[in-house]
Amino acid sequence: MNTGVNLAFLNTLGPWELILIFLIVLVVFGANKLPKIAKDLGSGIREFKKSISGEHSEKSDDEKKDDKKE
Prior knowledge:
By secondary structure, the protein is mainly α. The chain is 63% helix and 0% strand. The mean pLDDT is 78.
């Protein structure tokens, strides 16, 4: 029994559809916000993978001190 999510619709997306989606995102969020959105999305996915695998990344004492200084 397959309990995974079926993402078969992604196989039908061609280059023109991807360009259209990118242009819509560009118009909605603007060019200045796209790098921040991509960075936040990447860090969110990374944190999700860490939580799934059970990895816990504790900050070192030096990193905690740097956070307090800022």
